[in-house]
């Protein structure tokens, strides 16, 4: 018997995720050189990333919780509009403090992905969620290939009056976010059929609530797993760039090709291989093995510091790295009630934001001990994270099977 297909609205949401990802990733190659135009030091430039991550950590659970009260669509629109306005400010401002303000605004309203994941939970049955989350995250990942390419193209066209060539990348990112906003407004229906009674308190939005969530049965360990997985991964994402350029003696152009390779492998792995794997094996088993493989590959990279070895290892890394995030999201969805999906994904996004804030800074400190040091440290930490994931197996399986049954 043929399995029911995903609803049409899901594919609209997946398209929105892709456009939003392009908007987000288009500015990644621009932040550092753009900061230099404002006379910022290297450390001050790094704070642009920290400002975004910290603001997202604070704002995402607020948007997620509000989406449980007010509906998914209104909060998704607010989030996308925030990204649009932030891009416009960054592209037009002559002041460094407004550049920081734009990153804070983008971070505070940057909960659109967690809200979109709550929409997926609203519109798909439990047995379809692993595939849905896999496709959704694959579309987001595909944006990591298109975004930097679009950013490069934006810098080749004549800039508008009052906008620098680097600022054109921010302007294009704002335009992409605006397109996603329009698609959401006209083509995405509200999916939250039963809204909670509107009652807000500081406890709902305080940081204490986020940290207390780590003690919640079943969900708490998953939140911690998100942080550990994101923390170890973001150490790699910062460290591999100076390693690739200085140890392997490669060029930024080759580095862009490697980024594209990771993105394409992740896209293929999520879209075509995730569902067959989840149909055959337990979610936690796949998750633990994927993280374990990632840790082993981190250790192999500095062991064989040549370009052919890096590319060969990178193929396996691009595939293994495609699975942890959608699998954790699936487990979160299966182990939480339908009425709290927005809150749960909002809190989980906050843990991911914390990892995005701490990981690169940790890698920056480790690089002081040599370009290979971060790989040794994150390799060991990633293997410990895989062990932590496997230890959660029994409790997660019981809860997930109870809900899906």
Brief summary of the model shown:
With 405 residues, this protein is an all-alpha fold. The protein has helices at 8-25, 31-37, 42-70, 72-92, 96-108, 112-123, 129-154, 165-187, 202-205, 207-212, 219-247, 252-280, 283-303, 307-320, 324-334, 341-367, 373-391, 393-404.
Which helices and strands, and how do they pair?
Blueprint (H helix, E strand, L loop, with lengths): L7 H18 L5 H7 L4 H29 L1 H21 L3 H13 L3 H12 L5 H26 L10 H23 L14 H4 L1 H6 L6 H29 L4 H29 L2 H21 L3 H14 L3 H11 L6 H27 L5 H19 L1 H12 L1
Helix pairs in contact: 1-6, 1-7, 1-8, 2-3, 3-4, 3-5, 3-6, 3-16, 4-5, 4-6, 4-8, 6-16, 7-8, 7-12, 7-15, 11-15, 11-16, 11-17, 12-14, 13-14, 13-15, 13-17
Structure description:
This protein folds into two domains: 1-189, Growth Hormone, Chain: A, CATH 1.20.1250.20; 211-405, Growth Hormone, Chain: A (Up-down Bundle), CATH 1.20.1250.20. It is 79% helix and 0% strand. It contains 18 helices and no strands. Helix 6 (112-123) crosses helix 16 and helix 11 packs parallel to helix 16. The longest helix has 29 residues, at 42-70. The two termini are 19 Å apart. Mean pLDDT is 80; it is low at 400-405.
The tally of beta strands, per DSSP, is: 0
The low-confidence parts are 400-405
| Assigned CATH architecture of the largest domain | Up-down Bundle
Helix content: over 70%
User: Over all CA atoms, what is the radius of gyration?
Assistant: 20 Å
| Domain tally | 2
């Amino acid at each position: 018997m043929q399995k029911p297909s995903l609803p049409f609205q899901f594919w609209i949401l997946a398209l929105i995720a892709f456009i939003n990802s392009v908007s987000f990733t288009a500015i990644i190659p621009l932040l550092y050189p753009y900061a230099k135009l404002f006379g910022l030091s290297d450390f001050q430039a790094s704070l642009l990333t920290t400002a975004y991550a910290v603001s997202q950590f604070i704002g995402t659970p607020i948007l997620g919780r509000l989406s449980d009260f007010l509906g998914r669509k209104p909060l998704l629109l607010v989030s996308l509009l925030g990204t649009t306005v932030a891009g416009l400010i960054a592209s037009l401002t002559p002041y460094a403090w407004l550049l920081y303000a734009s990153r804070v605004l983008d971070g505070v309203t940057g909960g659109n992905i967690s809200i979109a994941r709550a929409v997926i939970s609203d519109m798909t049955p439990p047995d379809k969620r692993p595939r849905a989350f896999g496709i959704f995250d694959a579309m987001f990942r595909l944006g990591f290939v298109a975004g930097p390419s679009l950013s490069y193209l934006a810098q080749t066209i004549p800039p508008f009056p009052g906008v620098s060539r680097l600022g054109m990348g921010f302007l294009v990112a704002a335009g992409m976010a605006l397109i996603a906003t329009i698609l959401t407004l006209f083509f995405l229906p509200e999916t939250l059929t039963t809204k909670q009674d509107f009652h807000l308190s500081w406890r709902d939005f305080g940081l204490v609530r986020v940290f207390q969530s780590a003690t919640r049965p079943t969900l708490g360990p998953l939140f911690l797993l998100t942080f550990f997985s994101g923390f170890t991964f973001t150490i790699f994402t910062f460290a591999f760039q100076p390693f690739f350029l200085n140890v392997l003696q490669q060029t930024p152009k080759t580095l862009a090709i490697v980024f594209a390779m990771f993105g394409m492998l992740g896209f293929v792995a999520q879209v075509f291989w995730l569902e067959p794997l989840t149909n055959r094996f337990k979610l936690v088993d796949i998750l633990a093995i994927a993280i374990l493989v990632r840790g082993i590959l981190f250790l192999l990279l500095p062991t064989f510091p040549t370009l052919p070895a890096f590319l060969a290892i990178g193929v396996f890394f691009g595939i293994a790295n495609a699975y942890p995030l959608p699998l954790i999201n699936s487990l979160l969805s299966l182990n939480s009630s339908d009425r709290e999906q927005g809150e749960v994904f909002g809190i989980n996004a906050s843990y991911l934001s914390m990892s995005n804030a701490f990981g690169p800074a940790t890698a920056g400190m480790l690089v002081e001990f040599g370009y290979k040091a971060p790989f040794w440290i994150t390799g060991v930490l990633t293997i410990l994270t895989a062990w932590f994931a496997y230890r959660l197996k029994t409790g997660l399986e019981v809860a997930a099977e109870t809900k899906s049954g």
